[in-house]
Amino acid sequence: MEGCLQAVVLVGGEGTRLRPLTYGTPKPMVPICGVPFLERTLSRLKYAGVDEAILAAGYLPAAIRHHLGDGSRLGMRLTYVIEDEPLGTAGALKNVADHIRGPFFVLNGDVLTSLDLSAMLAYHREKGGLGVLHLIRVEDPSAFGCVVHDADGRVTAFVEKPPRAEAPTDEINAGTYLLEPAVLDAVPAGRIVSIERETFPQLVAGPIPLYAYTTEDYWIDIGRPEHYLQAHRDILDGRLRLEPLADPQAHRGRMWLRGDLDLQQGVQPPAYLGDDVELAPGATVGPYAVVGDHARVGVEASVSNSVLWAGAVVEAGARVDGAILANNVRVGHGANVLTGTVVGHDAQIEADVVVPPHSRIVAEPAVAQT
Ligand code: GTP
Questions:
Q1: Where are the domains positioned within the chain?
Q2: How far is residue 334's CA from residue 319's CA, in Å, rounded to a whole number?
Q3: Is 220 a residue whose pLDDT tops 50?
Q4: Closest residue (by CA) to atom 29 of ligand 1?
Q5: Which fold has domain 6-225?
Q6: Atom number, ligand 1, closest to the C-alpha of residue 15
Q7: Among 144, 154, 327, 328, which residue has the least CB neighbours within 10 Å?
Q8: Is the pLDDT of residue 345 over 80?
Q9: Other beta carbons within 10 Å of 164
Q10: Residues 335, 336, 341, CA angle at the centre, nearest 5°?
């Protein structure tokens, strides 16, 4: 049975909150310690016995297909279903209904979690019903969808983003479901439908139960810059152990530096360095620095509390602290890029500039030469 399990991964959102990173890279492809997030998600699915994933895409699908292809490198079969217009989280599932042959996982394309998918499947087999929703507990549920259930785990109500004082529970929808195909019968075709706001509440009012599966797992939605940075911090702190990759060969030669171990001059752990990273004399990297493949950090430059994607260049004497730099960003010598700043692909920061905290910087559009 496990051998023919399917999953649908929702990867069609525009990821507006992660702009400008998502102007060039769809959110599911942003790197987590150098490996596209979706590749990590697919490895988790593979590990749980899922051989086929249907990618419900729409925004920059070519970037996803270009990297993952038909999935054979990961030992999986990937099917791409592209929406011309976003259909919402349930509309996207309805749109792939023809491909579904049995119970299937549904994963939001931006949730980083240690959830054991096999255990969730076992729970569904034990409980029966229309499906299982993964829940986690949070201190403040007011920004999330609260899910209320009875003592047997049967879901009784959904309350979207309640004021904190009125929240009926601290358990929230964590964005991973295991559903029976019959759920799709409840979704109207050809229009935008939200699974959280429309489909689940409708199903809860019906005769066949949906069950809650609450765990204490690590969980974060990487869809905001501060959460994306926090996820890396947590990984470097060992709060989340990254799963083995389905294709470790493609990511050889990377270097983790944890604890007090300073394996490379200039590195202050914890830190992660990709392939072929160059540190000039006097450069410091860390603590809490993630530096992508082929990046260069110049003489007396420093990078801390930051995530640099592949090909970033930090010139001599520059300082990057608490920032995210997308592919091939260049920080000019002596410049300061500080807390909360996000720099889009190929952008250049001029020498000696002090970028105000929380800036969003995009590359200048190329000017046509006459
Ligand atoms: P923001 O614009 O920053 O809110 O991000 P987003 O567009 O990704 O939206 P959100 O974080 O709410 O989406 C949660 C998950 O559902 C993400 O993995 C999205 O890719 C996915 N998603 C959201 N809307 C759609 C849709 O209309 N179609 C598909 N296929 N996926 C969607």
A1: 6-225, 248-369
A2: 7
A3: yes
A4: 12
A5: Spore Coat Polysaccharide Biosynthesis Protein SpsA; Chain A (3.90.550)
A6: 5
A7: 154
A8: yes
A9: 10
A10: 125
CA gap 111, 11 in Å, rounded: 11
Fold of 248-369: UDP N-Acetylglucosamine Acyltransferase; domain 1 (2.160.10)
Helix ranges (H only) for the chain are 21-24, 37-47, 61-68, 88-94, 117-127, 200-204, 225-236
Q: In this structure, are residues 330 and 311 in contact, taking their beta carbons and an 8 Å threshold?
A: no
Angle at 50 between CA 24 and CA 115, to 5 degrees: 75
CB distance 261 to 279 below 8 Å: no
**% of the chain at pLDDT higher than 90:** 82
Q: Pick from 82, 108, 161 the residue to mutate for probing ligand 1's pocket: most ligand atoms within 8 Å of its CB.
A: 108
Asked if 127 is an active-site residue, the reply is no
pLDDT digits (tens, 9 = 90+) for 224-283: 999 999 999 999 988 888 877 776 766 665 666 655 445 567 888 889 998 889 999 999
SS3 126: helix
Ligand 1, atom nearest to 109 Cα: 18
pLDDT per residue as tens digits for the range 178-209? 999 999 999 999 899 999 999 999 999 999 99
Which residues, including other chains, have CB under 8 Å from residue 21's CB and lie 6 or more apart?
Answer: 15, 30, 225, 324, 326, 342, 344, 345
Is the Cβ–Cβ distance between 66 and 100 less than 8 Å? no
Tens digits of residue pLDDT in 18-73: 999 999 899 999 999 999 999 999 999 999 999 999 999 999 999 999 999 999 99
Residues at CB less than 6 angstroms from ligand 1: 10-17, 27, 56, 58, 83, 86-89, 92, 108-110, 223
Q: In terms of DSSP bridges, do strands 210-214 and 342-343 run parallel, antiparallel, or are they unpaired?
A: unpaired
DSSP structure string for 300-367: T-EEESEEE-TT-EE-TT-EEES-EE-TT-EE-TT-EE-TT-EE-TT-EE-TT-EEPTT-EE-PPPPP
